[in-house]
UniProtKB/TrEMBL annotation, chain A:
Biased composition (Polar residues): 10-29
Extent of the signal sequence: none
Keyword 4Fe-4S belongs to the record: no
Name of the molecule in the record: Pentatricopeptide repeat-containing protein At2g17670
UniProt cross-references to Pfam families, sorted A to Z: PPR_1, PPR_2
GO molecular function, one term: mRNA binding
From TrEMBL, chain B:
Name this polypeptide is given: Upstream activation factor subunit UAF30 isoform X1
Domain of life where this protein originates: Eukaryota
PANTHER family: SWI/SNF-RELATED MATRIX-ASSOCIATED ACTIN-DEPENDENT REGULATOR OF CHROMATIN SUBFAMILY D
Gene3D superfamilies: SWIB/MDM2 domain
Domain DM2 residue range list: 19-97
Length: 462, 102
């Protein structure tokens, strides 16, 4: 049924991805940027390592790693040996299974056997990210690597902070991350906005809001790192998910005081919050406010609004909005239509929703499985079982998944008509297509049949 | 909304889930049919249902009824014909609620 378009989330989470491109290229002209993207996201970083190297290390034994390195340099051709990236990823794949001390020793060994090799900043970042990714190790191991790095003449910079913070957060060491960020800010370099916002996002997930606020205040007062619009959007998103709209309003006031101007993302986030609470009217209010302030609504804005209005039963307004949307040059997508269909089905106008499906296909917008599920649900609720069976045929043909709600409604509708064999067939399809877990599919079928049996005993059903 | 609620209802009820997927020692009648000494409630249902499908035991005139063969009869209370509606309930009979361990 009506889900939030994924673009909602990405509005916030994508900020950390955007980061790599502009800011890095200014500072490190070589191949370094690529190296860093690897470490910025600690997870893909293991998968990105070349596959043959991944299987290189079968044990975490240091001696074997050393001999492996020796055989590696004796078999590799000369030009390749100068490639530092190769050695970095060699080290990196070793760090994924070894302890920090072993990795440091391996690096020593590598430098000794291959004097032309001079470790650069990213080499130390590899070690740093390892020291931060060990779940139970104290912060001192990270400091050890940092000291090593400083001794070799690499002053920690913004990327160093970033690598450390992301690694720490990826294993849930948020407390250490806060400590480290403060240490960095006072000693070396301040985190850039991306690192900062990433940390705030992690904090929001694991802490109560007051402690997040106090962290923000502290960063502001001690190190003059101010929260920006993205920070506020993250905060508002989390506040809204906790269904605390009043707090979101307060945050908007605060950010306006700071001289920031809310953008479409921020407004979309607030609207989403209202839609979650079934307050479509309030979402419209935000929309008007947004227009007054001259912020151009985007596709997500309209999708949110149409979703929210449909959800609280104001389909006619949602339809009007669809017109406005088209007039202002946006192309409604599957999410828009599905939300609207959802609203129409709620009103019992499943046929209207079906007409909308045709209109949608006519305009070249292809429906997704959510659309079909919404419609199937609508048909079954509106007691148009034959239409539902027809639609189920389309779903099955397209190999789409059934959703829990539409599956349950459909099975119930079939059983109500006494078409138990077909209900069993739908059950088979649900299990086969892995739409639901076997248990969920079975409990639904079982309880429906139980209900049907009871109804028959009382002479109510066919 | 409904789907989340239902999902929650299932995950919130670990006991019900466990009843469905825990392996159970089978009585001899069921053991002969299944061919193993342990199976879960859910697994047993799937096994019986696929047995019905592969052997085409559904009544050609009324799809909602299964004509039992000898093997199936032995586990479904010896009935000649079984309605699909009853099937889960009949299988449930083999999986009585576990009493608390003394």
């Amino acid at each position: 049924m009506g889900k939030f378009p994924p673009s909602f989330r990405s509005a916030i989470s994508s900020t950390s991805l955007i980061k790599n491109t502009p800011s890095q290229q200014q500072q490190q002209p070589h191949y370094f940027p690529k190296k860093l993207t690897k470490k910025n996201s600690p997870k893909p970083h293991e998968t990105q390592t070349p596959p043959p190297q991944k299987s290189l290390f079968k044990t975490s034994s240091l001696n074997e790693a050393k001999s492996l390195f020796n055989s590696f340099i004796s078999t590799t051709k000369a030009p390749l040996l100068d490639n530092l990236r190769l050695h970095n990823s060699f080290l990196q794949s070793y760090t994924s299974i070894s302890t920090l001390d072993d990795s440091i020793s391996l690096l020593d060994h590598m430098v000794k056997t291959l004097p032309s090799l001079s470790p650069d900043r990213s080499t130390y970042h590899v070690l740093l990210s390892q020291s931060c990714r060990e779940p139970d190790s104290p912060l001192s191991s990270a400091q050890k690597v940092l000291n090593l790095m400083v001794n070799k003449g690499f002053k920690p910079n913004q990327f160093t902070v970033d690598v450390a913070i992301r690694s720490l957060c990826s294993v849930g060491r948020v407390d250490d991350a806060i400590l480290l960020v403060k240490e960095f800010s006072s000693k070396h370099s301040k985190p850039d906005t991306f690192t900062y916002n990433f940390l705030v996002k992690c904090l929001c997930k694991s802490r109560i809001f007051n402690s997040v606020y106090s962290f923000i205040d502290e960063m502001k007062s001690s190190f003059d790192i101010k929260p920006d619009l993205v920070t506020y959007t993250i905060l508002i998103d989390n506040v809204c998910n906790a269904k605390n709209i009043r707090e979101a309003d307060r945050l908007v006031a605060v950010l306006k005081e700071c001289g920031l101007k809310p953008d479409a993302f921020l407004y979309n986030t607030i609207m989403k919050g209202y839609c979650l609470l079934n307050k479509g009217i309030e979402a419209v209010r935000i929309y008007k406010q947004m227009k007054e302030e001259g912020v151009e609504p985007d596709l997500v804005t309209y999708n949110t609004l149409i979703f929210g209005l449909s959800k609280c039963g104001r389909v006619s307004e949602a339809k009007k909005l669809l017109k406005i949307m088209v007039e202002s040059g946006h192309f409604p997508d599957a999410v828009t239509y599905t939300s609207l269909m959802n609203g129409m089905c709620r009103e019992g106008d499943a046929l209207g929703a079906a007409a909308l499906l045709e209109e949608m296909e006519l305009k070249g917008c292809s429906p997704n499985s959510c659309t079909y599920n919404t419609l199937l649900h609508g048909f079954c609720k509106g007691r148009m079982l034959n239409k539902g069976v027809e639609l189920y045929g389309v779903i099955k043909k397209g190999g789409m998944k059934l959703e829990t709600a539409s599956y349950a409604t459909f099975v119930r509708a079939l059983c109500r008509e006494g078409r138990v064999a077909e209900a069993y067939e739908v059950f088979d399809y649900a299990v086969e297509s892995k739409s639901l877990t076997d248990v969920a599919a079975y409990t639904t079928l079982e309880s429906t049949l139980k209900w049907l049996k009871k109804a028959r005993e009382q002479g109510l059903a066919v | 909304m409904l789907p989340q609620k239902m999902k929650k209802a299932i995950t919130d009820n670990p006991k019900q889930l466990a009843n469905l997927i825990d392996l159970v020692n089978l009585p001899s009648t069921l053991r002969d049919f299944v061919g193993q000494s342990q199976i879960s409630h859910l697994g047993c249902f799937m096994r019986v249902w696929s047995y019905i499908k592969t052997n085409n035991l559904k009544d050609p005139n009324n799809k909602n009824v299964v004509n039992c063969d000898e093997k199936l009869k032995s586990i479904l209370l010896g009935k000649q014909q079984v309605e699909l509606v009853e099937l889960p309930a009949l299988i449930k009979l083999h999986f009585p609620k576990q009493k608390k361990f003394p």
